[in-house]
Specification:
Blueprint lengths: L2 H22 L10 H23 L6 H14 L6 E3 L1 H12 L1 E4 L2 E6 L2 E7 L4 H5 L6 E5 L2 E2 L5 H8 L6 E8 L2 E8 L1 E4 L3 E7 L2 E6 L6 H16 L5 E5 L8 H11 L4 E7 L6 E4 L10 E6 L6 H11 L4 E4 L7 E7 L5 E10 L15 E2 L21 H12 L9
Parallel strand pairs: 11-12, 12-15, 15-16, 16-19
Antiparallel strand pairs: 1-18, 2-9, 3-4, 5-6, 5-7, 7-8, 10-11, 13-14, 13-18, 17-18
Length: 406
């Protein structure tokens, strides 16, 4: 056994045994360790044995740090589908997604058949001003070719300090086009608004970050100003919204409720047990609401849909939601790393857990292929998008009773 592996074994045994002693009370009267301690030693030995075997016999060389990080990832990810270890880059991405801003050039990209493709430039961003278009393939950043299947690496290279210059080459219709632009702080809009008809608004929320409630308030104010008065109804589209920050979902729900529980949670630690309630003040003053959901609506989306449904504040249209009723807490570690750990189960105002069950819509309407993604481009289709068509019919012809609107 190598010296490095021996050292790892000593540390692991020390940590595992130390934890076991603190929980189990140490050695018993005859000096023999309890069964729990014996198991801790056995597992530590097994860990070191596997580590040594992999280092010695695996087809390619692998260093200790990589092996140990993989072991940590496995330990956390094996708890459930949502807990995970985050290295520094992954933790940075998590913080970016929750704050709703980052420093870069302002493009949404995705991997298509291994290539890094531009989905859309963000309006007003350096990328938009430079002329980058949807459908462009990014082939080089600062003169270095973009490798296939390297989406996250490419995203990291596009980001940098505000004010710094980045050079990007894109492929468009067999022509290579070079762009040079200056990075700036990019605000990621999570709210998109439109009018369905005079006095009837439409708002799509694509994710829940720290700015979502403020964006949503501003969007409703803009719609009401354009309408020269209060809206008669609003369709809130949460389809394909994967969730995000729990407190953001609470704030959004609170915009439309006057009182009552929004969500409660239960866990092992004191911080993981809480109840969030609404404050008086409905931004729509009781106007009719329909919320559209589908299987892609998860977590924070389900908190909003569940709260508005349980308080009879909105009619829920669409399909059953994803069913993620667990709360994750991001716990910072040393050197910019973190773990995302499931700490609570949350419950709707009626006391139901929706985990692995989802929110059942009041009116079931199957998904229409291609929707709601087209709504992000401002292409609301009141006929082809059957879920939206159903929502419009209900909000215009069948006013909803609001037991919570006072």
């Amino acid at each position: 056994m190598s010296l490095k592996v021996r050292a790892v074994l000593v540390v692991v045994i020390g940590l595992v045994l130390g934890f076991s002693l603190s929980v189990g009370g140490g050695l018993i009267g005859n000096g023999r360790a309890p069964d729990k301690d014996e198991l801790a030693w056995d597992q530590a030995r097994l860990f070191a044995e596997v580590l040594e075997r992999v280092k010695r016999d695996y087809v390619e060389p692998i260093d200790d740090a990589e092996l140990l990080e993989s072991a940590i990832r496995g330990m956390v990810s094996d708890l459930d589908a949502h807990s995970q270890y985050l290295d520094a880059a992954e933790y940075r991405d998590i913080r970016i997604s929750t704050t709703g801003s980052y420093t870069g050039i302002g493009i949404e990209v995705d991997e298509v058949d291994g290539d890094v493709m531009v989905i859309t430039p963000i309006a007003g961003s350096p990328a938009a001003h430079s002329g980058i278009r949807s459908g462009d393939q990014i082939i080089a950043v600062d003169g270095v070719a973009v490798e296939r299947d390297k989406l996250q690496e490419t995203i990291g290279r596009l980001r940098g300090h505000a004010g710094s210059i980045v050079k990007i080459s894109v492929l468009r219709d067999d022509e290579v086009i070079a762009h040079e632009m200056r990075r700036q702080i990019i605000r990621m809009a999570s709210v998109h608004k439109d009018f369905l008809a005079p006095s009837f608004g439409y708002i799509r929320v694509s994710q829940f970050n720290e700015n979502t409630a403020r964006e949503l308030t501003r969007a409703i104010d803009d719609l009401q100003d354009a309408n020269e008065g209060l809206l008669q109804g609003l369709v809130l589209d949460l389809r394909n919204n994967p969730g995000g920050v729990l407190d953001s979902a609470v704030e959004v729900s609170d915009l439309f409720l006057n009182s009552g529980i929004i969500v409660s949670a239960d866990g092992r630690s004191a911080d993981s047990r809480f109840t969030r309630s609404a404050h008086r003040g409905d931004i729509l003053d009781g106007a009719a609401m329909v919320v559209i959901v589908n299987k892609g609506s998860a977590s924070a989306s389900e908190i909003v849909a569940g709260a508005l449904q349980d308080h009879s504040r909105a009619l829920i249209v669409g399909t059953e939601t994803f069913g993620k009723g667990l709360v994750q807490t991001v716990v910072p570690l040393t050197k910019g790393r973190a773990i995302k750990l499931t700490t609570s189960r949350y419950y709707t105002p009626s006391g139901d857990s929706i985990h692995a069950v989802g929110i059942t819509p009041d009116v079931f309407v199957s998904d229409t292929p291609g929707f709601p993604d087209l709504s992000l481009s401002g292409l609301l289709d009141r006929e082809s998008d059957l879920q939206l068509a159903e929502a419009i019919e209900h909000i215009q012809t069948r006013p909803i009773m609001h037991s919570n609107a006072k």
